[in-house]
Write a structure and sequence with these properties.
Helices cover 34% and strands 18% of the residues. The protein is built from eleven helices and 13 strands. The structure holds inosinic acid.
Amino acid sequence: MKTGITYDDVLLVPQYSDIISRTEVNLATEFGKGVELSLPIISSPMDTVSEADMAGNLGELGGLSIIHRYNTVEEQSAMIASLGKKVLVGAAVGVLDDYMDRSRAAIEAGVKVICIDVAHGHHILVKRAIQSIRELVGDDIHIMAGNVATLEGFNDLADWGADSIRCNIGGGSICTTRIQTGHGVPGLETILQCAQSDRDAKIIADGGIKNSGDIVKAFAAGADAVMLGSLLAGTDCSPGTIFKTETGELRKTYRGMASADAQRDWRGRVSSCEGISSSVPYRGKLADVIKELERGIRSGLSYSGARSVREL
Ligand code: IMP
């Protein structure tokens, strides 16, 4: 039996710092295949998080959105096309049925990133999907894949051709995978393990990130970028409407894509249910939420005396 840690189990020890101003901290990350993020924050491919509004606005703030795949190929590519050539955007695809058509349409509509988006990424179907999409798109398009929970999984996906890999299984705020299946690894432990890899693929810390402090911990453990669901679902740029609770609180719906609710909506039936449908407080403008996170990250790096994510 092994013991693994996650975000709430650790604190970073403050270090000597010669950073005079937080503006000296540079958060830019070279993400591979020409994908440059001035802010290494990626929005989750979920139908209550990432559609055109999120993609356009997060892209302008320096991050990246992965437009979800719980729609028709035409709907997804129309969202991408509506952004013009204006911002960096990615598209999620699965590993069965329409995934090749979806990839083709997304590339034609202008994406630079294809994300092979499945719950258990260390899987032969992901290997086949990475290889066939790579054959289709050549070397210029960034392929993101996942999710994995182990170093072996990370290395295999990298060897199969993934440029970046979503790391963490079972740690998402709306996730019930660990309860339903008994599988998972504490989120930060997965990042620490994957950071041991000698492959070039980038590490995306995905799920379970609740605040800017967790983002700094993920970077310190070796992540190149973070993927956020619940932190962005409550903003003005996520899909869905704001509703008021009986106590007068403003909230927005946020649901796992493997929740019964979501499955019923996107495929008309429920198989294994590994997520819940919930809601999050309405947090206001995306730009304000991102600026607040960015301030916390910059401050966090300066507590460690680091001028960049890599230095941290
Ligand atoms: P959060 O930022 O903690 O809310 O986690 C978001 C992440 O949860 C996503 O990026 C996915 O990796 C993961 N996720 C999304 N839907 C589900 C689900 O239904 N079950 C388990 N994990 C999910």
